C-alpha cells in the first residue's frame, strides 16, 4: 500500500479484547477503524455506535470481501483463530491476531503456511513486549549487560482468576487449554523474546485441575455460564530446554492457594554477566561488582501512552513499511509448539521434543 495513506482496519470479534483494540487504534492518526463484526450482531452494533465505526458487517466473510479494508484484527475465541486468520490472509488482508496463535499446534502450522504464501503482515498481539520495564530490560540485554542468559524463571500464579467459567474459555475444544494457553503464552512469549535467539527444543511439564471442576477460583474476566463446561487445567508447570543449553521454567495458574509474587506476572533472567528481575510492575538489574552484589532499580515513566498503543502502532508501521513484526508468525508458532508439548508431556509423563516440521 502507499505508505502515507491511512490503514483501514476491520475488527473481527467485538468482545472484551476487540473493544480494547477499537479504543487503541482510535488513538493513532495513521489508521482508522472502518468496520466491525461479531457473531452477536447487537454487540457489533453497540460497539460501532460507541466508537463511531461507520460499517457493521453481517459476518467475518463479508468483512473479508470488503475492498475498503486493508487489515483485520482477529479477536475471537481461540478455536476460530486459524480459520479466520487463514481466510483473511488469503483475502489479501494484513492480520493482527490475538494470542494464542491457535488452539493447537497443527492449526498454528496451517496459519504459518497461509502466511508464507500471502505476502501480508501477520502479527501476534503480545502487548507485554511493549511494556516500559520490559523494553528497558530488552535494551540492556541487547547492550550485553546480562551476557549469556542461561536460566530464566517466569510465570503468573493467579490465586482466584478463572475467566468466564463454563464459556469457551474453559472448554478444551474451544480454547485449547486453561491458564497455560491464556496467560502462560504471554510469559512464554516475553521470556523467549528477552532470551534472544534461543530456540526451544524439548519440554517436560504437568498440568492440574483442582479448582475449576469444583467451580472454585472464579475471577472477574468474562461472565460465567454455570450450565457450561470446565475441562481445562487451572495450573501448569514446565521446564523448557533450548538449543543453546539455556533453560526456562514456566509456572502459571488461574487459581491456586498461594500468594506467590503477589499473584502478578514475573520473569527472573540469569545471565553470565548480570541478571534482571521483572515482577509485580517493578524491575531491577543485578550484577556483581568487585565482591559485592549491586542492584539497579528500573523506573517506570510517570506518563506513558501504554503498551497496547505502541503495539498497535508497530502493526501499522509494519504494514506501511513492509516490515516483519517483532511478534512474528514464527514467534506465534514457537509459542504454540511449546504449549502443545507441555500438554503432551503432562498426558504422557515423558519429555517431549518439539516438532518444527511445517
Ligand atoms: N492480548 C491479551 O492480553 C488478551 C486479553 C484477553 C483476551 N485475549 C484473546 O482475545 C481473544 C478473545 O478474547 P475475549 O476475552 O475478547 O473473548 P470474548 O468472549 O469477550 O469475545 C469474543 C467475541 O468473539 C465473537 N465471535 C465468536 N465467533 C465469532 C465469529 N465467527 N465471527 C465474529 N465474531 C465471533 C463472540 O461473539 C465474542 O463477542 C481470545 O483469543 C483471547 O485469548 C487476549
TrEMBL record:
<feature type="domain" description="GFO/IDH/MocA-like oxidoreductase">
    <location>
        <begin position="135"/>
        <end position="276"/>
    </location>
</feature>
<keyword id="KW-0560">Oxidoreductase</keyword>
<dbReference type="InterPro" id="IPR055170">
    <property type="entry name" value="GFO_IDH_MocA-like_dom"/>
</dbReference>
<dbReference type="InterPro" id="IPR050463">
    <property type="entry name" value="Gfo/Idh/MocA_oxidrdct_glycsds"/>
</dbReference>
<dbReference type="Pfam" id="PF22725">
    <property type="entry name" value="GFO_IDH_MocA_C3"/>
</dbReference>
<dbReference type="InterPro" id="IPR036291">
    <property type="entry name" value="NAD(P)-bd_dom_sf"/>
</dbReference>
<dbReference type="Pfam" id="PF01408">
    <property type="entry name" value="GFO_IDH_MocA"/>
</dbReference>
<protein>
    <submittedName>
        <fullName>Gfo/Idh/MocA family oxidoreductase</fullName>
    </submittedName>
</protein>
<feature type="domain" description="Gfo/Idh/MocA-like oxidoreductase N-terminal">
    <location>
        <begin position="7"/>
        <end position="126"/>
    </location>
</feature>
<dbReference type="InterPro" id="IPR000683">
    <property type="entry name" value="Gfo/Idh/MocA-like_OxRdtase_N"/>
</dbReference>
